[in-house]
Amino acid sequence: MTKTVGANVFRTDGRSKVTGDALYVDDLDLGSDFLWGMTIRSTVPRAKLIDIIYDESFDWSGITCVDHRTLAERGWKNCIFLEEEDQPALAEGEIRHMYEPVVLMACADAERLEEAFHHVEIVTEVLPPVLSIEDAKNGPRIYKDDNLLYKLNINKGDVDAGFAEADLVLEGRYYVGYQEQMYIETQGIAARPLPGGGIWVCGSLQCPYYIVKAFKHLFGYGEDKIQVVQAVTGGGFGGKEEYPSMIAAHTALLALVSGQTVKIIYERGEDVASTTKRHPAYIHHKTGLKRDGTIVAQHVVTDFDGGAYVTLSPVVLSRGLIHAAGAYRCDNVRINGLMWATNTPPNGAFRGFGNPQVIFAAERHVDALADAIGMDPLAFRRHNMLLLGDTTSTGQTLSESVGGLECLDTVLEGSDYVSARAEADAFNASAAADGSPVRRGVGLSFFFHGAGFTGNGEAWLKGKADVALTEAGGISIHTASTDIGQGVDTIFPQLAAEEAG
User: Which of 241, 297, 311, 443 could, after both became Cys, cross-link 163 (CB 3.0–4.6 A)?
Assistant: First the structure.
């Protein structure tokens, strides 16, 4: 019997957060001589960058300014590297989205910094923007030859033969929009130069090694010259997965140029306007059915809006395609995934990235399918859901731990769905007879989500932890797993204590 795992223990970070003792990045003591950092951004979605002019009549003493020319002068690579080398740290040549970073400034006096903001002129030649998926398909070429950031396909069985044997073919098109993570703590990073060369950064972040990768590319540093520290982090939800590489780069650039410690903390408006969101998407379903409700063919096309740069879009699209057919068996599946470039801020990770979009569409379409053949939507789901031994759209045979039916039965019992649905149907029939416009709705949806990285990540991502005894007889745990509210800092000590007795 376990003693600590599964026990109701106090969170190790609970008291400090409740009392206000926890130090978020904006609470850190950086000394009296640190500089406030600021980003000047584009006010147009697409333009040729002609010039950046600093007002000569303004007193620039004590203010550090950085633009793309500064990086070139110092031999730094103007790129925030993640999946592709397409996103600059600071706009150069062409502005690709609204709020794109163009100039960085830092000053010890926050009010002087705000005043200096009004003495920088960004000279541009405005170009026609691509602001939607439809624009990307039919408008100007803004990314490569086809405006596609990434594309991916999944094929299983013979889809054309499946449609040929279907008694009914139904199509539907579904849209999901942007979604903002709205973490309580906004993006924030502090940075300072290291003695002997290199950079230290500390901030609100999920993935410290993303920043290490970006800095190696940006500055040409070896890992021995890069120190990344996660401060107490007030929520992430994916929004602090890849974007902190950008704000960390900006803070580090100002710190290295000024030779001082610099801190950038986004105000809420800047954070919402400029950082990554959940990808909007259009999802088109074409499904073939037999009269008994059996799904015999599926063709799904997912069009995602990736924004101006690649960021994590390939991973988002991959996970979306893996789940696009829904949690239902079908021998014949074709899924086409397209990630479009637009002149909007890049989109990125957000809880379940790619999956919530496609599952929403799949579940709405399942309701439409059930309605089209006059079948109860619950019965339709039960008839088609993936079970032990079935094969997913990606060809994976489900050989163990498929809890779909058990989960469904538990939800039905706990929610009283069947009687609630019957009451709603009776109410709606009565309302229709009386000419009332009021209706009641009771719905049910079925969701599945691949654990782990999904895709090929499991082949090369292996979690590691070093556990050692301390001189005082305690246990020290070293891990690359960050705590962003899910309780790693409590759970790992529970695991170690359990094993150590």
Answer: 297
